[in-house]
Structure formats: structure tokens, C-alpha cells
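Quick one:
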Amino acid sequence: METTQSYFFMDMSVMLGRSMRHVFRSMDTIITVTLMPIAMMLLFVYVLGGAIQTGTDNYVNYLLPGIMLIAIANSIGYTSYRLFLDMERGIFERFHSMPISRSAALWGHVLTSLVSNVISVAVIILVALVMGFRSTAGGLSWLAVAGILALFTLALTWIAAIAGLSAKSVDGAVAVAYPIHFLPLISSAFVPTASMPGPVRAFAENQPVTSIVETIRSLLSNQPVGNEIWVALAWCVGIILVAYFFAKRVYQKRV
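Output:
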């Protein structure tokens, strides 16, 4: 007799489809996750770019990695918000009364974050190409960029899951996104860290976004990545493992 666990992937695909329909029906999500980062890219390239010294003539090439990370950071508030709503409305309890895998509903939200960010990042790259973005990277470099962005998305998504599952109010659920929004701004995403004051520079150079940005920038320009890629991977994998552990504990406790 087949067990419920054998249907895990089928159950997860159903939960993914459910959550993706919520994303496509939410104009607010589309505006915040895709259109706002594009608007920021247009602003920095065509309004502020001429006043920013980055050592390159093509500012959109310098800017794009940070814009992609901002789009991902913008999305996690919606993940925690939708998880909170499912908790508040008893949706998880209803799912668990059915013959489906107990973790499928949670993984549905996590995969929705991953898939929706793939779409938004692809749209951002297309707009950047129209604005003059050019890359000499080969196929393997692009795969490496995709892998790093996926790890970064999963890291932030599991953090959002902790907030969404444990929050007592909607405000508490989405508050997790606010401090994360500042990380790309206080990094090398927009300007070189060498131009920053000492304490700000020290923080910028030792937080995860800078190493991720520098790695993606080097990969897209077909330059050596050095040790930055290992620092970026260590940050992403470390956050995923810790956040996943606590998210599962909260999920098991609350549901």
C-alpha cells in the first residue's frame, strides 16, 4: 500500500499551483517585486548614474546584480504575509486533515517564492538588456549566477517562513522584510565600498550581500571570482541551514 509520503511531490505541486495563483492575482506583489526594482534601475542609471564613480563606463552592468537582489528581498515580505494568513485562517489544519504530506503546504510557499523570483529576475534582465546591459559570461557562469540567486532566495524565504509562522499580527509577519531591504543599499551594489565612511565601509564589506554582489558581478563580466564566491556560498548555505531548522521547529509547534 502506498503511503502518503509517496505522494509528496504531487502534493507539493498542488500547493505550488495554489500559491502561484495568489501571486499572479496580486497586482501589489507584481508591482513591488518586479516593477519597483525596474523603476530603481531606471532611476539610478538615467538620473543618478552620471554622478556615481564606479570605474566602469556601463553603469547598468555594475548595478544589475544589486537590483536582482533587491527584487528578491522585496518578495520575502509576501511569503511571510501569506504564511501568516494561512496560519490565521486555519488553512494548514484543513490541509492536515486531508491525506496529504504534512510539509507539502509549507514547501509550496517556499517553492512559490523561488519560482516567482525566477520570473521577476528574468524580466529585470530583459529590461537591463534594453538599457544596454551586456555580458561576456558563458553558459557555466550564467548557471553559477542562477544557482547563487536561488540560494539567496531560499535563505531569505526560510527567514520569512519563521516570521510568517510565528507572528501574532500581519505587521509582525511583514516586518522581517524591512531590515533586509537595507542590506543591498549598504553594500557594493550601487557604489564601491571604498567611497564609504570607515564604519559604514566595515559593515558593507562584511555582510552577505556584498560578497554575493561581487561574485555575480565577476561572473557576468567573465572575471575571476577569487574567494568571494566561497564567502557568498558560505553565507547562503549557513543561513539556509539555520533558518530551515528554526522554521521547521516553529511549523511543528504551531501546526
